[in-house]
Amino acid sequence: MNQFIQQTPLTNLFYVFLFFLFLILVKWFNRSETNKCRPPPSPSKLPIIGNLHQIHGFPHHAFKSLAQKHGPLMLLHFGSKPTLVVSSAEIAFEVMKTNDHVFSSRPELQFAKRLFYNKDMAFAAYGEYWRQSRKVCVLQLLNPKKVQSFGFVREEEVTLMLDKIKVSTSAVNLSEMFIALSIDVVCRVAFGKKYNEGELGQKFRGILKECLYLIGISNIADLIPSLAWVNYLNGLNARVENNFRDIDSFMNQVVEEHIEKKRRLGGHDGSGDNEEEDFVDVMLGIENGDKDHSISWDRVNTKAIILDMFVAGTDTSSVVLEWAMSELIRHPDVMAEVQKEVRDIARGKLTLNETDINEMHYLKSVIKETLRLHPPLPLSVPRETLQKVQIQGYDIPDKTLVMINVFEIGRDPKLWDEPEKFWPKRFLNGASVSIDFKGQDFQFIPFGAGRRGCPGMVFAISIIELALANILNRFDWALPEGMNCKDLDMEEEFGITVHRKNDLVLIAKPHYS
C-alpha cells in the first residue's frame, strides 16, 4: 500500500504530461491543416469590425473598387461573418450552377426572420420547408398559366394609370405612378382587391414602406451578435416589432375576409374559374388540403408566403420601369426608335394588350438593357454555404456568406462592348443577341440563377413590358421646361432594391388627339 501511495503522484504526473502532449499535437495538427487551407484573396481587416470600414457609399460600388485590387473572388469579413464576394460571370457559374447545392442556403437575418414569420421562402434556409414553399410558389402561384390568367388585371390597371396621366394638369411623377401600379396589380392578384383608398389604403402603404426599409438596412446584430443590444438603444428592434404587429393585423384581416366570403358563398370561392382565384384563395386551399395533400401547411405559412410575393412583386417592377424611362429620357434617339416600333404595331390603338407586346423586339431589348445597367438587386440576396467547397482552387469554409455583384458583372468590359453605354441594340445583333435574363447566361443575371433564382420573374416582366409599351404609345415625354436630357440626375438610393434617389418627374403630352 505504501508503495502504491508513493507511486501515485508520479503516475498522475505522467498522465498529465501525456494530456498536455496530446493537446500540443492536436494544436499542431490543426495549425498544419489551417496552413494547408488556401483562402481567397482578402484585404486586411480590423478586429471586431473586419472589413466594414472599407465599405464606403453603396456596397455594390465599394465591392467593385475592392475587386479591382483583389480580384473577382474576394473574402471579406463583416464583423464575425466571412463573406465571399463574386464579381465575374465565370465564378458566378461555379457558384450558382456547378456548386449550386452547396451555395443554396440563406444566412439567418434577424429582421427578415421576424417580419416574415420565420416561415417565408425567400429568406428560408435550404431544407425541406424551403423545398415545399418553393413548390407552392412555382406550381400554384407563379406558373406561366396562372400568371397569364391575370393578364386582364394588368391590362385594367395599366389603363387606369394611363387615364390618370391623361387628366394630369402638371408634370407627372412617374415614380409614384409606377409604385402605385405595381401595388394595385399585386393587391388584386394576391388579395382579390385593391387597398389604395382612404385611411386603410394610406396605412397599408405605410406598413409596406416600413417593411421594405427594415429588410433593406444592415443590421448590426447579424454582423456582430455581441452588439445586438445596440438595436434596443437605436429603436430598431421596437420598429421591427411594431411593423410586424401591423403586418400581422393586416394579413389576418385579409385572410378573414376571404374565409368570410367563402362562407357566404357556401364553400365556393365565387370565381367560377379556378384560374381566377387570387393567391390567398390558393393558399387557403393548400392549408385546407384541397390543393395538394403532399404539403403540410398552416395559417402562418399562408401569411408568410403571401407577404413574400407582395414585397418582391411591388418593388421590382416599379424600379425597372423608373430606370427604363430615366434612360430613355437621357437618350432621345432610343426613345424615338422604340416609340416608332410600339406605334407601328399599335396602329392607332389607344391601349395595347399583352398579345401586342410579343412583336415588340426593340422594346424588349430596352428592358434588357435597363436590367443590365440597373439590376433591381445589384447584389444578390446573400447565400450561405452548406459545407466546405473549393472555388477557383480556393477553399471556402461552411457557413460562409456569399454575395454576387450582379451590377459589376453586368458592366464587365470583358463581357460587354462599351459596358457603360445604354445601347439596347446590343441584344438585337452581335455577340449579345442570344443572351437572356432567365438564369442560363451568367453574364446577365438580374433575377439570379439556380435553385435560388427569382420565381416571380415572369410575373414582374409581364407588368414591366405592358406598362412601358403603353406609356410610350400613348404619350410623348419630356423633362420640365428648362431642363436638358443630360441634366437628369441618375443618383441611386440603396435599399432592398436600388431605385432613384429623386423621383422621376416628366411632362406627358398625349400622342393621339
Describe the fold and architecture.
The chain is an alpha+beta fold and 513 residues long. It has a single domain, classed as Cytochrome p450 (Orthogonal Bundle). The protein has 19 helices and eleven strands. It has helices at residues 2-36, 59-70, 89-98, 110-115, 128-141, 144-149, 151-167, 174-191, 198-216, 220-223, 230-233, 236-264, 279-287, 299-330, 332-346, 354-357, 361-373, 406-409, 457-474, and strands at residues 73-78, 81-86, 172-173, 383-384, 389-391, 394-396, 401-404, 475-478, 492-494, 498-500, 505-510. A four-stranded mixed beta sheet has the order 1-2-7-4. A hairpin with a 3-residue loop joins strand 9 (492-494) and strand 10. The longest helix is centred in the first third of the chain and has 35 residues, at 2-36.
In short:
The chain has one domain (37-427, 438-510): Orthogonal Bundle (Cytochrome p450), CATH 1.10.630.10. Helix content is 52%, strand content 8%.
Instruction: Please state the average pLDDT score.
Output: 89
Overall strand count:
11
Provide the structure class: alpha+beta
The CATH topology turns out to be Cytochrome p450
The sequence of SSEs as H and E is HHEEHHHHHEHHHHHHHHHHEEEEHHEEEE
Approximately how much beta-strand content do the residues carry? 5-15%
Q: Total helix count? A: 19
The CATH superfamily turns out to be Cytochrome P450
How would you sum up the major sheet? 4 strands, mixed
Radius of gyration: 27 Å
CATH class placement = Mainly Alpha
Low-confidence stretches: 1-10, 270-275
Which shape, going by the Cα principal axes?
A: globular
Helix content: 40-55%
Number of domains in the coordinates?
A: 1
Task: Report the span from N to C terminus.
Answer: 117 Å
For the biggest β-sheet, the strand order reads: 1-2-7-4
Q: Can you tell me the CATH architecture?
A: Orthogonal Bundle
GO biological process, one term: secondary metabolite biosynthetic process
Transmembrane segments: 12-29
Family: Belongs to the cytochrome P450 family.
InterPro entries: Cyt_P450, Cyt_P450_CS, Cyt_P450_E_grp-I, Cyt_P450_sf
